[in-house]
Task: structure prediction
Amino acid sequence: MTSIPMTGFQNVLTFADMNEAAKKVAPVFLKTQFLNFLFGLRVSGLLVSLVLGLLVLFFWIRVKKLSSKKTVKTGLSGIDKESLLFDKKINVMLRKIDDYISFENILYWKLALAEIDSYVNKVIIEIGFKGSDMSERLCKMSSEYLNNLEELKETHKKVSEILNDNNYFLTKEETEALIEVYKNGINELRKM
Result:
């Protein structure tokens, strides 16, 4: 082989020189590129984890809000905590009435009757029956809502008479019997 004089191409890189340089630089370039790729994966993984964490927190809060509105299933409907037909509210009212009845005093017995009559009236309003007073609301109801509707109408009429007559001689047994009719009515309304 004869050598060709390189007069004008002394500073020019040949393909062989470029190939040799690429072999020396390639591992460094690939390492940097691979590290950048891993860093990008880490950052994107952190972002995805952050988004998923926020979604989990959001749904957990939503579930907590929903579970705080517990309902008790009775019959075909659910009873909200705020309803007068909720067990705790009924039990509080019944304890109050039992306390009134425990006194050996006609005024407390009348107070017990007034209390349960008012409570049943509020329940009927809550359910959605309209009218100017409880008698009118009871007249608008049908016996499919209350099995003891007629008995409840008569009891309400009797309680109104008792509460309006200062000279009515009320006995404890009569008070308990009238209250029992109201209790049965409340239990029937809970089944709606």
User: Anything to note?
Assistant: The first strand starts at residue 71 and ends at 74.
